[in-house]
Design a protein that fits this description.
Blueprint: H1 2-22, H2 26-31, H3 33-38, H4 45-52, H5 59-67, E1 71-74, E2 80-85, E3 91-94, E4 101-105, E5 110-112, H6 117-131, H7 137-149, H8 156-163, H9 169-186, H10 190-199, H11 206-215, E6 218-224, E7 233-237, H12 246-255, H13 265-274, E8 280-281, E9 284-285, H14 292-304, H15 314-323, E10 324-330, H16 335-385, H17 392-409, H18 413-438, H19 447-469, E11 485-487, E12 493-495, H20 496-518, H21 520-530, H22 532-537, H23 542-565, H24 576-589, H25 594-614, H26 619-636, H27 647-650
Antiparallel strand pairs: 1-2, 1-5, 2-3, 3-4, 6-10, 7-10, 8-9, 11-12
Helix pairs in contact: 4-6, 5-6, 6-7, 7-9, 8-9, 9-10, 9-11, 10-16, 11-16, 12-15, 13-14, 16-20, 16-23, 16-24, 16-25, 17-18, 17-19, 17-23, 18-23, 20-21, 21-23, 24-25, 25-26
Amino acid sequence: MKQLFFAIFAMLLTCFTATAQDGDIQPLLQEHQPLIAKSSRKTIGPVIDAIAASDLPAAQRVLETWGAKDMWFRKSDNLFFIGETAEDKQIRLIDFDSGEIVETLPKSDVKQLKPNSGVRALISSALVRFQLLDDNKSKREDALKSIERDPNASLLAPLRASIDAEPDAALKTQKRRLERLLTMGYDEDPEARIAAITDMSGDLGVDVRATLNPLVATKRDVVLGDAPEGMNIAEILKPGSSEFSKEEAYDLLVSKDLAPARILPADIRDVLAANIEGGRVGGISLAQLDNDETRIKAYQALADAGIAPPFVSEAEVTQYLEQHTFFDTFSDPNIAVTTAATEALKEIERKVGLNQSFDLMLDALSLASIYFLAAIGLAITFGVMGVINMAHGEFIMMGAYTGYVVQQIIPDHTVSIIVAIPLAFAVTFAAGVAMERLVIRWLYNRPLETLLATFGISIALQQLAKNIFGTQARPLTSPAWLDGAWIMNDVVSISYIRIAIFFLAIFFLCVFLYIMKRTRLGLETRAVTQNPRMAASMGINPGRVNMLTFGLGSGIAGVAGVAIGLFAKVTSELGSDYIVQSFMTVVVGGVGNIWGTLAGAAMIGFLQKGIEWMNPSNTLAAQTYMIIFIIIFIQFRPRGIIALKGRAAGD
């Protein structure tokens, strides 16, 4: 009876011990001890995979400790532990499973594992399956980034298993997207891959195209006779076509050891020169070797004698090509998968083209708003007064420098921009009034003198800016809420600064229309524009109207300078970069008409972006083509898109 009791007790103890050992990580580590101790990237991969796939509680801790270089093994028995530096520089050994301190040993009795960067990369990839379910959100984010950097088939199952348990909505969406991408590339079920491809066929993400492209990648091959059945052939190639020359086809045969290499004329000459005997080569005298036919004949004689490699004639080349079939095969063997991937890429390419066109339109609209903002002041002065103001660009420059000075005084960029816009208007308004009173008023109806005078003022203002601010570009920093861009998808985006400039241009268009339609100044300005003499006889002072109008145009140029300075370099030459476009905008749109200026800015903005799109590598050429087009346009419509009636039209 006692013997039976002890037997049952021994069996229970054995089962308990086995169960405890089954949950320990140490036996698995000992099984691979030599490879772990060596930690070579060439051999450690299966060991890391075995630890990660063991489902043991301590597996994650082992990999994290190993990757952090905190893993040690005891020399006496080669057991692995977590190592911590204790007093007297001894090493405290901690058990992986229990987390308890085992003992403290001198460094001479233990050895630290120091995996190189390659091994640590493998460990990081293996840790992903644990990090996907980690309580720490940042670790789950790191796991997803790791999958994006290095996707592979082994991560598909743990990624799927982690989706339903993901508490964060954004991360769950990201996991689902990654699951679709990994399914497309690595799932063993073709139907699942096709379903994933269909789901993502309308997605414009770069990652989708990066996943689909390898599925439709091809490699060139050749076989003797007809193309083999069962292969996923993309295209049968015909040697001699525009896409596949005979030379390429024969070189492929040579690389596959299916045909002898061709002998080039230079090789023939070298062989003949090396085998001259008694003034003859291959039975032919040197005097006769003055043409290709005799040289080939001499070389053929040497080849028949075994002295030179065999010569391949054009007829033989043609024969070899006719005997073989050339084709491109898809890298993926499944025809249904590559067909679905090809159709998806075609759909994506179509949508990318449409979105690129939309993105180009947004860029053109943004550029048009910048040109309109820069030209609106010139349209006012040129249209109402008939003054060709070559210093208009310098008012833009003055506005930009005003914004820079304000930012030096007010460090808050949002407040500084709010202060800078009206201050720039005031500064340039005052400068415009002073310029009109001191110079322009004496030069009315004398366009050449006005042009020369304002050009001289332009040079003087540029030099004054250099003396005050130097020649280096000054920063005009935009507020933080204008940083970045509005990204609609992976194709279409527009910066927040350009959006703000667009709305600023719309705002000043509304302000101008209000002034011209709803205020006394606007009424007087329109009267002077239509008939200055009649306006004067009605009690309107044309000089005062001209002064205020010139000041208004100059003030708006200053505001344009603040806006332009947010994305362009603020230098003394800033205005010079926009004066030509401003004049073109005014002339093309119609002198003195705000709607014409708007139409001209739109036309020039869209035209310039269209030309740059067709010739993106040469911006200077694009500007040249644009100027040529505008010159031709003016020949057919010299008064612009919307011609002004009244004095300006008569002038």
